[in-house]
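Task card 7
Instruction: Convert sequence to structure tokens.
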Amino acid sequence: MRRIAFVCLKGGVGKTVTTTAVAVGLARRGKRVLVIDADQQSNATWTLSGGQEADAPTLAAVLTRQAAAIEAIRPTPTPGVDLLPADGSLGAVNVQLAQELGRDTRLRSAMETADAPYDAVLIDTAPQFTTILANVLVYASEVIVPVDAGLYAMLGLVELQGVVDEVREVYRNDALRISGLVLTRTSRNNVSRDVETELRARFGERVFKATIPQSSKVEEAVTNGRTVMTHAPKSAAALAYDQLIEEILSNGGIDAQVGSGVKAVRRPRKDHAA
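Output:
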């Protein structure tokens, strides 16, 4: 089973759109998928629930041991896709767990048997390093990094590699790796082309061939509480996500580091310690 976290330490890059699109695409290919919404904004919950907010219990209750994961997981309108939802209370969990032992391993412990029925677990994340993100990385087996094709596209990439390295070392999560970067919100302007050229020159095969274009259909889908795969399955964005999914299925992950040749920025150990 693959446990894929969609992570970028920069906001507005399409993490939620990508997570939910990949979930639906995998389900259409006969895979059973669980999506964990690990962002207090709960956009993945909104999208996969047809524009509905989550009822309790949510991920916050699971991480604070008020509910078992199996009690919080529920089906979505998309056959083959289940959801462990989030709500605004997830923000307070970072504060609550800060003083507790084992705070970074709560998700891994909670999912020990709850994820058994699934072929893939996809995790949507917030664009900051928090105790919640530490939990995600301790549990995940790989990271896919959405990168928007605009200015400052590479902000946080080297820092993220340092965080992944440290989690792998401290928590002995030997499977954890960055399996690829996916360019999102691409367009035909010079900035977008230059960013893609630079990323491919620097990171080579670590950048997926599929690129996700800027699309009004994505915005319409989000507004209507749907994924672009269900809202506009023939749109350029949906077709690009289909190509990305095929690459994910055929790519077991690339071990090379995104920080290769660049001095990595490592966070203080206290941010990760149990």
